[in-house]
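ASSEMBLY PREDICTION REQUEST
Request ID: AP-0331
Submitted by: J.K., bench scientist
Number of chains: two
Total residues: 718
Priority: normal
Notes: Please return the full assembly, not individual chains.
Input sequences:
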Amino acid sequence: MNHIISGAMLPDGTITDLFVADGVLVDEAPSGAQTIDAQGLVVLPGLVDMHTHLREPGREDAETVESGTLAAARGGFTAVCAMANTQPVTDTAEKAEHILDLGEQAGHAQVVPIGAISEGLKGERLAELALMHRSRANVRMFSDDGMCLMDAQLMRRALEWVKPFGGLIAQHSQDSQLAGPGACCHESEISGRLGLGGWPPVAEAVIVARDVMLAEATGSRVHVCHISTAEGVDVVRWAKRRGIQVTAEVTPHHLLLGTELLEGYDTTFKVNPPLRTSEHREAIREALIDGTIDVVGTDHAPHAPQDKDHAFVDARPGMLGLEQALAVVMEVAGEELGWGGIADRMSVAPARIAGIAGQGRPLAPGEPANLVLVDPSARAVVDKRESASLSRNNPYDGLDLPDPVRLTMYRGRITHQR
Amino acid sequence: MKHLTSINDLSRDDALSILEMAREMHDVQRRPVKKLPALRGRTVVNLFFEDSTRTRSSFEIAAKWLSADAINVSAKGSSVSKGESLRDTVRTLDSMGIDAIVMRHPGSGAAQQVRGWVDASVVNAGDGTHEHPTQALLDAYTMGIDVEGKVVSITGDLAHSRVVRSNVLLLQKLGARVVLVAPHTLLPAGVDAWPAEVTTDFDAVLPDVDVCMMLRVQRERMAGGYFPSEREYTALYGLTARRLAKLKPTAVIAHPGPMNRGLEISSAAADDHRSIVLDQVSGGVAVRMSVLYHLLAGNE
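STATUS: Completed
Returned structure:
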């Protein structure tokens, strides 16, 4: 199907018609095209999520590649990077290719497999990083997300190993020794009062500091997943000034939600790294705006009810994010970032950092037709039942937020429209 | 009042009402026939996810002396490992038509979560390192209820204590002055915001206190690096015979048990004539009778 998108506003403010033929943007109206009226809407390059948990294989009751990419399309995403902590872990070329194939079969968004850094996420020996890279899956990004890679020597070796092919090591920065075994929330007055074990902010900062020094020493690239503290951001800012190849990501939930939500022990709000206080929230928001933080990554983490309906300490950490990510970014930093800034942090920069060809590209003739049409002013109260995800651990349920996504197009096909 | 999961569920008047009625209940304890008919036909389930001898038997006796049917359910081992969610476990029990769940759970906040899942009244018999409200009530009862203006020191592993959180909340309501004593490694995060004074110097506090409450220190904490050795802990924070001499003659010594004699409390202190440790146990049944009565009687 060919399309004419009429009257959409580009991120730079110009109003234009876009023409789509055979999955690609072209410079004149194709024959037999269906017209999409985009008057009053903004067109952005399709959003790219560097940090998605699709749960397949292993926990298809919580999410599948099919359902997760449908949720992605509803959120305006045309590419998602699938984290490696599935069952089994994505730590070989064959497993990475399997994820790639599942994504192609579903067809709702590009699925980019992330490889594990260490075999089985155990943090003991390297996974077959280069073989994953050389496979059809062409893995460029590696992460043990969910677990911090604590062994400094292994971290150094990983950085050295991926350097020849420009691979990216993405770290879940949290020193597990700086928090007790029962740690499950931000260490603060609230954790002390609620009797919940805390993750101190410094547990993030010390790992970020260690890893940027290792990136400098090896000349390789490191990516800080879901940065959540003011201290962590300060280290990244310092490292960037020093010329170290470090990039950082922030989640929508860390931008909007705070640790005070834990007062009722609602396990929907249990997430790792934890929701923090307003000082941290403001620091990461500023860092996203000034570019210290490069990208927004959702850390979309679906969980079945039986994994959440436990005492707080026993419940699985993680919350949904794909469908409300753009809304949250517009809400907390829309004015400061502008449409160009939002397109950068949510599409251009993540595609560049993760090395995803054909995503995060300019909306210009010859480029793949991956785009999202956005209503800049609509708002709605989030209803967790209205979701393509198989899970309902939506932390935004009941909040009044922007309701931007009108149409998502992936390789010229409409993957979501309303 | 339907639930008691935190001292925050109680107004000052609620707390005083429970404590005053506990006095009457305590009198019943001294009769040859101890049963009252108040909760006849009611069913109380003691749902314990953690081992406990004194709290569980105290609640069981309390329910029985009020003529309720008391059933003990031991659910030790996390529900996670059994594959059943906490929500399913308590809803299953609730569906049997019980009136109250007295629950102990290793996870902080578990009792509060359960409130939202069941129709029965929920009594928190200790949730992780969060609260143990009936312990605080029985402590206040043993201190004589009227603690207005009294100085109460609480010394020990405050970070991992559910007793201290409930005690601070209740003693504040009742007008006592609370002094918390612990090394920095065993203080809860954000303790400076609590309605209490905080110090690391036990010796400086001793001459002023009316109630010297000692909390259990688990030896396993040494492995976590919370303190170097038992010897050093005792030297700094133990109620030793030497420190006992610094207490006022009118001061009392409390400990919610179980005691580590020789670690946080010396035998000289535990067995001192000023010790109210056994009174705490005795008052525990009366206070729990009063709590069950307040939650269940007249709540048709």
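REVIEWER COMMENTS: The mean pLDDT of chain B is 94.
SIGN-OFF: pending second reviewer
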